[in-house]
Amino acid sequence: MDPPRRSLWRSILITLVLFVPEFSESTSRPLIFNFGDSNSDTGGLVAGLGYSIDSPYGRAFFPRSTGRLSDGRLIIDFLCQSVNSSFLPAYMESLGSTFSDGANFAVIGSSTLPKYVPFALNIQVMQFLHFKSRSYDLLASGLEQMINNDGFQRALYMIDIGQNDLSDAFANKYTYTQVIKRIPLILAEIKNAIKSIHDNGGRKFWVHNTGPLGCLPQKLWLVQPSPTELDPHGCISSYNSAAKLLNEGLLHLCTELRSELKDSTIVYVDIYTIKYDLITNASKYGFTSPLMACCGFGGPPYNYNINVTCGHDGAQACDKGSQFIYWDGIHHTEAANSIMASKILSQQYSTPRVPFNFFCQ
After folding, report:
1. Nearest Cα to 104, choosing from 128, 70, 138?
2. Is the pLDDT of residue 29 over 80?
3. HSE on the CB side for 111, CA within 13 Å?
4. Of 97, 198, 328, 350, which is the active-site residue?
């Protein structure tokens, strides 16, 4: 394909993938409660700890930093837009929201273990239970706009966590075998979270597996792997293998819970395959340098340096984030998030294949 035609096709593709259509058959705006880490944090860390996430974060859409670790919208933002819901506010944000469409308990850096430290998954569930209890209290006092029992029962409960459990274990120099031995403990925490929410009325669950950890520019820069440690696409094989084993266990867990909680809908979404496909077929989607961060320091091959990270002095952002999969070496660009959201909405990566707009009926 000649360069002008390639440029035209790229422009058309970007225009298409940055638009996720709404489903006209939705009959009501859904209630959504999300639990997770930086992949779906819409401002929790900033609101909870006052941590500063500065420009150029958020530049592609908002156009300011909103606490999201991307240049724009996250996958969860596109999913909310697809069912005509507002962006999900961070639970710990005290100003600007009535939480009429739900709340986001996800916080950057969160994991399932260790328990009882901010903001582990079980802490997020405890925050939700407090939110639910306070909603009932306020309803009883006459605030009718608060979420009622029916709302909590019909709400969608999204879980996207586990990446940091694997990442932290490898960072702490655990052997591959030691990392794998932790997987049942991680799965047990996810199971406990789902069952706790179910015990408190939740019946609709949307569970994302974890992505290809070994493809993150941050990990590649930190590990500096030898060629024998890489897969054919330049990712760390052992890290990705651990992620796939966690995902296999999570799929089995969701199947098990579907049988156990027969009154519930539990959808497992294969985010790993979606994210890895972006890397293996980067040029198909209009991306260049699939393992390099748009915003960082150091240039090729990864443009990442832990001492000069995006948003800090010395780091620079690329001109066109739409040409990059990774934004800051760990998290994705809005362009990548848009494509991934479109694939999620296709149902091809869901088990069972339940449309996302099912949850707004």
Report:
1. 128
2. no
3. 16
4. 328
Is 85 assigned a catalytic role? no
Tell me the three state secondary structure of residue 18.
coil
Q: How far is CA 138 from CA 122, 134, 267, in A?
A: 24, 6, 32
What is the strand order of the sheet 102-104 is part of?
102-104, 32-36, 156-160, 204-208, 265-269, 350-351
319/302 Cα distance (integer angstroms): 16
- Residue in 198, 208, 331, 332 annotated catalytic: 331
Cα(348)–Cα(243) distance, integer angstroms: 20
pLDDT at 18: 45
DSSP 65: -
- Selecting among 26, 37, 38, 82, the annotated active-site residue is 38
The pLDDT value given to residue 361? 66
**Where in 57-168 does DSSP place strands (E)?**
102-104, 156-160
Active-site residue 238, yes or no?
no
